Amino acid sequence: MTLYGNETYAKELRRYRDMDAQPFVPLLSADPNTIDKSCNVIDIDDIEEFPPLGKSSSPNKDTMDNPCQTFFNQSNTSQSFSSFSEGNDELNFTAQSFANITTLSDNVDQPFSNPTQNGLHGKFLPAESQFHLLAANNAFHQNIPKGVKENVFFLIHDEENKVRRQQGKGSQYPDDCGAWKSSSNVTKSDYFLKTQSGYQSIKRDKNGNFYRIVRRTNVILSPQPSDEHVVVLKRKYSVLARCNEYRKRVTWCEGALNSSLAIVEYIGTYVPNVSHGNAKNTSVPYRRLTKEQTNIIQQGIKDNKKPREIRESVRESLPDEGITLKTAKNALYTHNKTQNPEDRQNLADDVVSVLNMLYENDNIVQEVIASNTSKPPSVILFSKEQILSMKSSIDNGCIIGIDRTFNVGACYLTVMTFKNPNITRQNSVEHPIMIGPMYLHWDGSFQSYHRFLSLIQSKLCGVEQRKIIFDTDGEKALINAIEACFPESAHTLCTRHLKENLIHNLQSSHSRPEVSEIVNKIFNKTTGLLSIDDVIAYQEKEDDILEEFNIPYLQTHISKIREFVFRVRRRCPQIPKFWTNNNNESMNNIIKIETNWKILKMPKLIETLQVIEQRQTRNIRDCIHGRGDFALSEQAKCLQVSDETWQNIATETKEKRLLKLLNFKTTKSHIVSSDNTLKIPKVAKLQKNLGK
């Protein structure tokens, strides 16, 4: 195909290369009839001054046969540019605008090794050349070809990224070059106005107004063109992470020109791949996953395959592009984090989520305590049912255990536990262990525990403090906080922890037989110090031990046993000998099983604790009508109703029945003195004679 023209028109064609000098000149004329018919017919191949875009300046240089090496070959036939016109607001080409672009073979995606004849010569394509390449819809690659890429560009299919951009997602152009600096990504835009005479280059200012440059002056277009008449040529620049001289640019169109292609250009000398900066094995070069590998991995994850199965799927589909087992595991880990938005949050996001829980009606979050220290806020958790159940248990003489748990979250978890005497397990006389108020905190200081216990003290109003018995493992800050918030309460220590602490502190400086003898004299269940109930006998046994073993630490340890075990047991006879806080250990195990032995973030940990509390409340409710894992104890059988009756009563009545069980107190048949040293049976009240 030829163009009508003369020498003047040939000069205009040459001026096409230098469009920056006159940016408002039409790139292509829409009407060939406007050209003088008397002009001579000029073959585009005869114009040596204007070689095809992307072609080397030497017209006689041989071109490569491999289309993967270059897009441009000198055409053997008489082919040239032609004009294009508009029809029904669509771009209709009357002829192939870039006829000299070779048609790619079926092997366009095969690797190439020496792409040197490409026409870039260390510079990116000008905007006008890119515009015509994208508008012509020529042959293209499905993906960026593999292999060494130096001063070369490719037309690739970009429909997938076009959809991603419409969804507000980023574009993806994976290649085998390695990692590109994300901080170097810069996107620039060029604008072309769709007019009756063709497409013309325009610019846009910061206010969004389109203008053209006339004699170095910005002239704003009036009226402003609409978006449907403007083509936006977007270009994204990147720099290779291991070499700043090796650059990449991706160009695509948006707006009036509906092109599904993109241009990928590479400038500079290719640098071989190196290992990843975080890799332990530095001998293996880093390779990005290709689109095909990613699709196979994602499908394997969707099919719930294991990492080994995913790796084998990639090997079967892509024999020459296998992946490591570590890659499959990382992909599965990333997918799981994507499925759980909470896992992507930082600590500040976690605190915001907890604050939102504070205002939910059915949530156990009661207080979020913030201080001016460097620690994040602490959280106190409990429900109304937990407080009522704990009050009833205290009145019935139960022991309240307090223990700090590790390895369930980013912070510490302190849990209160107790046994509910009004409930037993099915087919057993054992009372179930109940979870009480919980505390998420960041240190084990006195101030931290005091904040928690002071709130619990206010919620236990109406309960006599002298009836409260606390059990701990001997943590000093916790003991001091209990004495400050509950000065009249009793406080005992776990004998198992006392025994373990004694062995731990003596075994480094004393022989094993000597340590065993000391432990036996104190903790033997028949002849040991803790087996004695009489005050005089206890004092004599204690003096004998201290006289026989003159060890300073032993004196301190025995004094602690006297204060927190023997004297407390004399004051509260319901405390059994050799008491241990197994209740806390059992509850800690339940919590860790519920968390699947994983460290959870604060919002997820709170949700898990709430699940335990809600299950506990449901079990208490079910035992009222003879269902569930629990049953009413003998003293609370009066509150039981048949299952048929329960199904027919109103919800409000069910709630009242539950509250009645939670508040139920056992009627005692005896009276105990204030110091718990004397019990006498209750006697019938004498009738008062009002006349005397």
Main attributes?
single chain, 692 residues, alpha+beta, 4 domains, 33% helix
Overview of the structural elements:
- With 692 residues, this protein is an alpha+beta fold.
- The protein has 4 domains: 3-267, no CATH class; 291-339; 347-493 and 581-692, no CATH class; 495-578, no CATH class.
- The protein is 33% helix and 18% strand.
- The protein has 18 helices and 23 strands.
- A hairpin with a 2-residue loop joins strand 6 (186-195) and strand 7 (198-204).
- Helix 5 (307-317) crosses helix 6 and helix 11 packs antiparallel against helix 12 (512-523).
- The protein is elongated and about 115 Å long.
- Mean pLDDT is 79; it is low at 1-13 and 15-117.
- It comes from Pinctada imbricata (Atlantic pearl-oyster).
- InterPro entries: MULE_transposase_dom.
- This is MULE transposase domain-containing protein.
- Residues 400-501 form the MULE transposase domain.
